[in-house]
Amino acid sequence: MTDYEIFELGDVVLQSKKTLRGAKLAYKTYGALNAKKDNAIVYPTWYSGQHYENEWLIGEGMALDPRKYFVIVPNMFGNGLSTSPSNAPEPYNQARFPNVTAYDNVRQQYRLVTEKFGIESLELVTGWSMGALQTYHWGALYPDMVKRILPFAGSAKCSRHNFVFLEGVKAALTADAAFQDGWYRSPPTKGLRAMARVYAGWGFSQAFYREELDIKAMGYASLEDFLVGFWEGIFLPRDANNLLTMLWTWQNGDISNNEVFNGDFPKALAAIKSKAFIMPSKTDLYFPPEDNAFEVAHMPNAELRVIDSIWGHFAGGPGTSPADVKTLDAALRELLAS
Amino acid sequence: MTDYEIFELGDVVLQSKKTLRGAKLAYKTYGALNAKKDNAIVYPTWYSGQHYENEWLIGEGMALDPRKYFVIVPNMFGNGLSTSPSNAPEPYNQARFPNVTAYDNVRQQYRLVTEKFGIESLELVTGWSMGALQTYHWGALYPDMVKRILPFAGSAKCSRHNFVFLEGVKAALTADAAFQDGWYRSPPTKGLRAMARVYAGWGFSQAFYREELDIKAMGYASLEDFLVGFWEGIFLPRDANNLLTMLWTWQNGDISNNEVFNGDFPKALAAIKSKAFIMPSKTDLYFPPEDNAFEVAHMPNAELRVIDSIWGHFAGGPGTSPADVKTLDAALRELLAS
């Protein structure tokens, strides 16, 4: 009883020169591919998110309207549905799961799109946060295939500050002795809860907390209720090794760190020919607009559109802030019409 | 062989209605009190800091010149020199150490200033971060005694976002099983290192890391060298219960949360008659200038002077950023001359 499909990838050699044998790409599609196969959109998942957690931006009457478009949501490796530490067979399971890059992810997503569906052109690639990281990869790696991109609250390369923020998240999770270097038999709940508390200060802005939007907009009874109910609630059900796998993917995100661009970041940005709206949140504490401004200056066809929101990183998703959803939806509509 | 003095406080009843028996206030003075006793400055310590870590702002030729002023640096309760979990006798030692407020601290500092030295007027109270919190308390509680205050990179009340940031720090430290609910016999080093990594993303700004000032200005060889050498180096030598005691003091900082103001924060701000320069750092991630702007709007004699720096919270101290030290020193000079 699953609501998603599996694309069998076979044996996948990763950038790390390790092999995921019998790798699987879990995905879900919305709408129908037309006869000309020219109405497809790819919309990758975010850190820890699964395909259904992308659905807030898909719907009849919205820009990503399944009556018009064929929306493919591929699940990231490590997210628990595609091949992950929690579901990989021995010997590459749990703590032995290999490092996977965003490049590795997008290369396999490309296979899904082309081999499974025979699609040669994409109307749009879009995504939030790590979904944005994958979006940039699509633009840089397949410039003749991708007509438009709209990465939001993300970046083409993990900044040093963003890396440090994630070091704190990782340290909190792994400080729990129950983590047992990744060989736990039951979840390291203390570490997962600690990680959630560390994340809480980063996810929303100073102004969000000052205005008490956790209570007044999201309906929690108190700050502590928000920390437990929302934040610990996000991370407790997820697998610790999966979270660490995706965290590594995030920290090492860089569209130029591959055989195509050999670390030349400006060159990789310049390769993104797609028409692009780059949409950071003005108050995002780990994806500040300044990093995107650098990107846009090196991209031939990109426009910086800062979301004027106090919801911090969560201006971008996952549907938490209704006003920001409208802003994103309107931008997607405008971009798709162009 | 200590470089500080002890003022015996006797039995101190705290706001929490617990009694610190035989409490001690460790302090150090710089310069000499003049005959009229009208050249004194109080300069409280910051989170985890001890008196010698305040000395970067004191010196001949600087605004806080010991040839002219008598500078008193009182150590905060919980900092390991004044009465703290690490040095308190049973039964209030270690994990049983009571909660101490900034109000508790400043009330005892007042006793040191008046009972020990017979001082009736202070030229200035100043401090960084939690030192700023204590500075605001001095202004609100002793308005006829304090001529001037200059709190920098701090606030009169812990904001909700700041509280959440500290929840992350606390959760990382206490996730370590070696912490043993505060009854450790050897330090919970994994938790202390995790706490340091969490703190690292908060202490300096996104721009600081983007510009690689950890390497280019502070001389570390790499980002990881900075995380270990600077950040883990700060917290590893400090006692975990002490850190948690001061963290509680910080999280519960509020100049109005006492019998004088009964929780009326605007009223407490309005009580600060001292001429005040309020100096946040423009890029401070947990003491953003917006919170200080609210304060200044309610203070009768205060001016907001934002430090234009990318050093984040560390624009304020402890002497890490030479340009910002000059800015602070010049402001102190101007305020003292007025």
Automatic annotation (TrEMBL), chains A, B:
Cross-referenced Pfam families: Abhydrolase_1 (PF00561)
Domain of life: Bacteria
Keyword annotations of the record: Hydrolase
GO MF entry, a single one: hydrolase activity
Record-annotated AB hydrolase-1 domain positions: 63-314
Gene3D superfamilies registered for this protein in UniProt: alpha/beta hydrolase
Location of the active site: S129 (nucleophile), D284, H313
Record-given protein name: Hydrolase alpha/beta
Origin species: Methylocella tundrae
